[in-house]
Amino acid sequence: MNNVNSNHYSSCVLLDFLVCSMSTPYVFLHFLGFFGAGFFSGFGVSNMVQIVTGLLVFFGMVNSNIFVFESRSSSLQMNRFRMTRTSVRIMYHVVSFCLNSSICLFLLFSPDDQSAAKLDALKLDPCPTREFFINDILIISTDIHTIHFILWICGPVIMLHMTIHLFFHAICTIYYLYVAPSKSISVETQRNQRKFFMGIIFQTTIPMVVFLSIVGLIVIDGVKQSMSQSIMNSTIIAIGGHGIVESISVILVHRSYRRVVLRMLKKQETKSKITI
């Protein structure tokens, strides 16, 4: 499970590094516009490359959550649904990642004439923020039917797909840990397994809450058409701050990390006393 957790932590760190520093997304939701406000733009990286990279990293983080729950579920010998063959597991996660990332295909149909697309975007949002005029914006689509299809069909379908995978593996684990535990495993081992599983739920809930909050805002905007750009920007800031909460949750869940942090704090306190 150490490798599983390492993959999850690495994907979260990579997403935070991308969102907070390299390619901070500025999203115009009403007409699906985007530009990167991070270091990548300063280095001349195109908005298309930035948004594709961001989406792939995001879905990689989501799939790392599925990988964590699937690994926990498959480690239970009595689970009849566990995957034992490595090739099957690899195929399962690759297909899941590809299905989630399929939304990137819509980027292939973004308008070639971006100047004309920006004029069309003003018809959907006549008063965008000043960033729309002073930055190089990538307009993904200005067709209202395409926008509604992406936001109301593709988005919810992908969310449902990810949720089904997570809930399936979580339910299997809960059933074989709490409802029908193996009689051949000691009580102490079962207690440790349950404790570890609760820790997994706690630390993986944070990224999913962030994702669901974005979906919730999109739904509200679709219903009321009243979400301001400031709310969208606040959502991006919340995504960037999720890494801090993720780090705190890891420290709270895992005793070994708490010990290391406390040891570092004690050393720092000792150095301060010596200096004084």
UniProtKB/TrEMBL annotation:
Protein name: Serpentine Receptor, class H
Regions that span the bilayer: 12-36, 48-69, 90-109, 149-176, 196-219, 231-253
Classification lineage: Eukaryota, Metazoa, Ecdysozoa, Nematoda, Chromadorea
Swiss-Prot/TrEMBL keywords: Membrane, Transmembrane, Transmembrane helix
Keyword Transmembrane: yes
Record has Transmembrane as a keyword: yes
Domain of life of the organism encoding this protein: Eukaryota
Pfam families according to UniProt: 7TM_GPCR_Srh
